[in-house]
Structures are given as C-alpha cells and as structure tokens.
Task: structure prediction
Amino acid sequence: MGHIFEYCTSQELIAFTSVCRKWYEIVHSLVGLNINYGTNPICDPISGKFETLDLELLSTLGVRSLQVGDNEELYYDLLPPFRYPSVVRNLSLTGAITDYKYFALVTPLTGLSEICLHFAALSELTIGTSHVESFSVLKCLRISTAHVEASTTSDEAVVTVVENCIQLLQLVRSSRLERLLLDIPFSAAHEESMNCAILDCLVNHSYSIQYLQIYYGILAADMEVPMSPQMIRSFYKDMCRRLLDHPVRKTALSRIQLKRTSIASPTHVNNFSLWSQVIQRQKKLKELFYLNLTIEGVAEGCRCIQMNKDTLTKVLLHVGDMNSQSPTIVLDGSVFNSCVNLTHVLIRGRRLTWRLDNDQANLWLTRMPKLRNAKELPKRLVLLSIRDIEVGCEDLHETLKGMHKLRKLRCMDIGMGDNQGMWAEDLWTILNDKRMDEIEISRAVNRESVNVMLGTTGLDHVQEHIMRHVRDYATCMKSPSPTETILIRLFFG
Result:
C-alpha cells in the first residue's frame, strides 16, 4: 500500500488520511508528503513534485521531502518541529538560512538520504563539523549554483561559497554515499584546494560512491590569470602529480568503481587531465559525459573511452571551447568502435559565428567542429544524437545503413551544403522503415540531395512531399505503450 501511495500528490495523501487510521499511519509514518516552503523557490529535481502547504503542517504531518526557499519568517523564526523526523529523506535548501536555523532544521533528520545546498544557503553558512552530523546515512550530496548569475552576486559571496564547499566535501562522512553531484563556482585561487577536497571525498567514500558529477557555474573574479598555454599545461601536470601521487589517496582511488561520471569545465580551464586519470582507472564505468571539451579535453575523453571500452553503454562528448583563432577541433568516430556494449552516443559541438573585421560587405563566417569516420560508430546503437558538428554525407550514409537497432535519431545543425549533412534519400529510407521511436532532423538535410531527389529546385515541394510522408509515418506507427509517444520533428532551415 505504501508503494502505491508514493505516486500520489500531497493533496491526495492528505485526503487519504481521513479514510481510516491505518491509511493515516501509512501516509505519515511510512510515505510522507512533499512540502515546499518559501517564496519563488528554485524547482529542484531531487524530490519530485512539491505541494505548497502551510508550514504548520510539519508538526502534524509526515514529511518525506522538504524544499525551503527564501522567506523572512524562516530567517527570524524557527521551523515548527517535525512530527516524524525519521521519515524525512530529501531536503533542499534554496534560500538563505543562518547556522542556528540550519541546526534546528537538519539535526533531527537522522534518516536523511539526499540533501541539496544552493548558493543562497552556502553564502550564509559557515560550514563546520556540526553541519554534517546528520549525514551518516546520506546517499546523495548535491551542491548547486546553477541558478545564480555572476552579475547578481558579489565576489565575497562567491569566495564564501567556494570555501564552504571545500569544507563540506572534506568533512562529510556517510557509509552509504553513492552520488556526489557538484555544480560549484570556479575560483582559480582555490582550484587546487577544491580538487583536493573532491578527491578526498571520493577517497573517504571509495566503497560506496557510484556517480560523480562536476560542473562549474559562476566564475570568481580571480578567473583571469595571465598564463600561456605551455604554462597552463605545466601547471595542471604538476597539480595532477601532487594530488594523485599521494600514497593513501592513490591506493584508495584504485578501489573506486564509478558507474557514471559527468564532467564539465569552464572555458580556458584545462583540468580534464586530473579527472581523466581518475576515470581511466575505473573498471565498471557505464556512462561517461564530458562537456565543454578543449582540444586537449577531446584527447583525454577519447582515452577515457578506450580505457572503459568493455563496460560503457552511454557516452556524451561536447566540444565547447572554440574561437575564431583556434584550430578546428576534429573528433574521430573510430574511438567508439571498440566499445562492445555501447548503445547511446551523443556528440555535440559548438557553432561559432563571427563577423570579419573592417568588412564593408558585412560578411559573417561560421565554423563548427568536424566529425570524421562516423561510419565507425557501433552498429548496435539504440540512440544517436549529433548536433552542431559537421558530418559528411557519405560518412553519415554509411553510419545509418547498418544500424538496424536504432530507435532514436537526432541530427541538428550538422551541415547542409558541400557534401555535408544527411542525404534526402537517407531521411526517406528512415521514414519508410517505420521502426523509429524518435526522429529529430533540424538544418541537417543536404540541399543538393534535396534538389536531386525530386528533380526540382523548389525546397517547398520537397518539404511538402516529405512532411506528407511524415504524417503517413505517424499514422502507421503505434506507440509501444500508452505512456510513450512517437516524436517526429523536422526543420529544413
């Protein structure tokens, strides 16, 4: 019964409590409600759907998930005591809170399994040992600065958050910590200390940790440090040696068996080498997501794929660091060919557009990374997504020809001219096959092949002809289950 109740909204659960005493006890002492408190709270994914209820209900109802946003009453007054504190599993602090209020709120929650601390909360707290005493059975620690803009906060607040993050990572101890999800500010002055704290947190939970996510949100004012590319490479090489060659840390890192990693660095920061060395030591890694890659980062990502080729099932590579002066980044699809269990591949580049200086004709240039040897991608793929990266027509044709298990295809901004993009015939073949669950083609059909296909120079005729076929496709297709839908989205640009 309790399992069924978990799918109900808080308002429905409140109604169920009046049915009988047994249902009342199940709702409050076993299931709990999802309660939101505060003005304009950030929508947080860790606890599902929230209902905004009167805070006084905390003392009468069981609460499973509590999201606390900015509120003047909370800043000056204590929350009412939880009637069933052991039921609380998820806590998200999205607003400012003092240390005293934090202790009053968190200390009774001995069964807490997930906590999310946002920028506003971390900018007010002074993290110490007492702040993590209730984390003994914590499964997920999440730090989020994703909804904060640098223009709306002070440099002092950013530094305070960075220092609190370091303290929190060094002090937290849990016998069950599985997920470490970090969306943190970047400070060049604290970079090595932060990396050290993250590594030590992994070491302290080497027997339980399974998922590591490291994203960098806002940048501190000390970001701009004048260093040549050679100095940057030397700096990170020395930092990797200092952090990874520590005897205790080196031994403990070898015990870590991550199943999923997601790493993204800010532009001009090249710390992929550090995390790549951690990832390359894994033996059971199934999902690898690398974002905002530099040229060096692409090489590191490819090495990580090769080192985990026997276990990887999902890979995302995002090439993000390009400018008009840098060389074009080329990704070789053959790096995926040896991954025997790979089913999901997502490759994303970055479209760069700039205007020529002193150009009287107002000429704009566009450049994207390039995907070579796409035909070497594994034929067993279920999902293939390619976006903002140039792909040759023949290469993509050979890629799609043998993918009989493919069910989801997304091609967006992969080129439309000069033998780039998807041949119109290939799109026609895919639609004729009627086996796809999702098709999304946007500015990806080669223009010349469209003209050749129908022997006309009018793109409108081709669009009308293909879209008529799309409608027939959607009519013939039957959704596998009532909860699944068939997505077909085409945009010819």
In short: Residues 40-48, 473-486 have pLDDT under 50 and may be disordered.
